[in-house]
Amino acid sequence: MFTSANKGEGKTFCVSNIAKEYAKQGKKVLLVDLDLHRPRLSQTIAPMEQGGLMNAVRDMSSVDNQILTLKEENLFFLPAGPLPSNPLEIVSSGSLLPLFDKLKKMFDLIFIDTPPVRIVSDARMIATLCDGVVLIVRSGVTKLNEVEEAKTHIENTGVPIIGGILNGQSYTRKEKDTHAYY
Ligand SMILES: Nc1ncnc2c1ncn2[C@@H]1O[C@H](COP(=O)(O)OP(=O)(O)O)[C@@H](O)[C@H]1O
Ligand SMILES: [Mg+2]
What we know:
Elements: E1 2-4, H1 11-24, E2 29-33, H2 40-45, H3 53-58, H4 63-66, E3 68-69, E4 75-78, H5 87-92, H6 96-106, E5 109-113, H7 122-127, E6 133-138, H8 144-157, E7 161-167, H9 173-177
Parallel strand pairs: 1-6, 2-4, 2-5, 6-7
Antiparallel strand pairs: 3-4
The structure holds adenosine-5'-diphosphate and magnesium ion.
């Protein structure tokens, strides 16, 4: 799963782009919108969609019908679906576990978009479903103490941080010509 300290740091942007890249490489990829507070991916990709993850939680046997095929080959999308009044209750209820067990058997890779880890507790619960967490930091925006706080929240889940992204970093010509870019 992908998360960050605050909103607007590029979680949704990064997770969808990276999911697309893996699909291009031939992996069967599922992108999941588990930001049940601001489901931007669902609103962008499938605004009129009736289905989604929340329906699959209520009726596991319907999971195949809740997954959308996208125009990109190998890329599939599970929208959030009808939003619950208390998202945290859903993500901490244990009902996502059997659903993700099933999804893991259906796809090579699953990328999950989540809300900011410092702001709401959802991402900490969602992390326990995942093999690893990617932490996004927005260059020049996310404060050091916020990164540390986000990192601590994730570490407390016991799920490894498998990557970090410094998002939105711009480089001068000189930096690009030297090793700074790398
Ligand atoms: N590297 C980037 N380059 C250009 N635009 C970006 C980049 N990262 C994020 N954005 C834009 O910034 C805004 C916030 O990003 P978003 O992914 O929605 O943040 P979050 O999911 O963390 O709340 C969006 O309009 C998104 O398109
Ligand atoms: Mg987002």
